[in-house]
Amino acid sequence: MKLKLHFATLALTLISFSGFAQFSENEGAARQWIQLHASDLKIKPSDTFKLSFVTKSLAGETLRFQQVMNDVPVYHSEIVVNFNPSNELAFTSDSYDSTIENISTTPSISKEAALNISKESLKINGEYTVTENNLLVTKVNDQTKLVYKVVTNPKTGRASWAVLVDAQTGTVLSTYDEAMYHHKKEAVSKKPNPETTMSPLAFVSGTAMVYLSDPLSYAHVAYGATGYTDGSDANTTQLAAARTSVTLPEIDLTAGVYTLKSSYVQIQDFETPSYGLFTQSTNAFNFTRDNNAFEAANVFYHLDLSLRYINETLGITCRPALNGGVLRFDSAGLDGDDNSYYLPSTDQIAFGEGCVDDAEDADVIWHELGHGIHDWITNGNTSNYIGEGNGDYWAQSYSRSLGQWTSADAASQYMFSWDGHNTCWSGRTTNYSGTYPGSITGSAHTDGQIWATALMQIWDVLGRAKTDKAFLQGLILTNTASNQQTAAIAVRQAAINMNYACADIQVMTQKFTGKGYTLPALGLTMATIANQTVTADATNTYTLPSYATLANPITANCNAGLTQSPVIGTVLAPGTYTITMVATSGASTVTRTFQLTITPFLGVEDVVKNHFVLYPNPASNVLNIKGDFDTNESITIYNMLGQTIMTKGVTSNDESIDIASLAKGIYNVYFNNAKVAYKFIKE
To answer: Residues in domain Secretion system C-terminal sorting (predicted)?
Structure first.
């Protein structure tokens, strides 16, 4: 919880709410739901909630209400309310603690005093930075306390210490490490080199030699095979051959100096050992693993690749809340320990060097980024119950997409294939036999394998893009108290909100249930259907097709009846018509209507256009495209000045594009392969 927003108060009848910075037309409906369920949630009449964060995404709009006490945040106590793209309330979750008592929120000691108390208690030798010092209300040993949370990051990088200081007495109540590690293991540090500095530069493209995943997966061998051991960073013929030349879409160039920085990622040297920033006079970052620059380029490539995939390919906005939205990383940190972590107080990632360098294994890189994604997409409200499983899934989703192993290979399920499963440590898997909740051990790293395995079982059926979208959109609906079962419900609901095919929802239900999660029974639902605009054919008529795919009624068995009026095959002249879709399942009925506008025939291009459906139009947040697309199809969105706004590959016959960030106005969508264009209005 980064708490970077300013509060303002507005009282309501039963529960006090307020809005600030964030705005949503659904806020009133969300507040009403909370009011109606105050008794179920055990909310006290004196409790106050403030709208702290609004996320508009492919799965609708999600509002996060932060509990406050006299404008002081109650730590990790919030209510989350999600509305689907039709603005219908679809999902809620909460981390509200009804046992929080009303206390005085006027501190007796100052912020500076709390900082000094924290420094004295930690007794850190050497350099450090204080990244957080906030006043909070929280529970400590079952007592409600007003505290200062002070977070200190030592330059060595061995921890990120959070100290809770009693704001009334100055007593240190709790000290804990809040960094998010990929595993728990110590190692010996390596010798540092002098540090250099970096300044913001201009972007050009570059190249690098990297491990696409790791050298073992590339060569289909096990750790210990000839040439395939760490050997204290020794370069071997085999390990050099496992590298692949890749393009870096963006790197910085100023005054002839190239630096590993892009719109998404930036190298930093914030922990020991200090090797500098590996700036150079060429845009080719081609190194072997015996050079520390190799790890830097490897991490940069993978972090940039992952964030581009999320934001540009999947169309989901997900970036750090700090550092201007740019992720900072240190490819050699943690004082050389055999571990890596994400630092939530600074939105940074650091990688250790003990045993196999973590920065050489894409699984470690993508796993740690998974912690960051979880943090940013929930506005800091991450859950320890699902965090490690999230990271494992995100890493495995990428590495399996490379197709380096067959499903028959045990290594296809390995997590940390190069860094683990060897003499360094045992690694983890995504074919974990445990089920929820019976196999829960209380160890986040062990238990996360249940969650990651369930997601990968869905991935094996639905594929990477669909599963990744549902996973990321589902995380938006979670909070600090969300366990694996809550997360499973959230991921399935996100898929329903995005109007995934009923068969896809059925797969999710079956796989989640198979891993022990109990999901709510699915009643009959049908998404709102956006208005459609098509063009008549050369005879200046339009033959009505089936709109069953757009209607997509969802039931547990995908056996809903569906009727359409006017019926399929009806020949219509240009004009505007009301299309009615009626879904039935047992005694349940859902009716949806939409307007179909048929424009007159204008020429050959419009016949081509009839193969595509683009809706809604006008659109506010999401633009949907359906059709029979060529495998090489892509679209480019231009503004009315002819400037390119966005380019995106079309990977399926059912695409959703996040346009929430576009300014209001008229845009052209050009299908680059079919060579036709549509206009749409951004509201």
So the answer is: 614-676
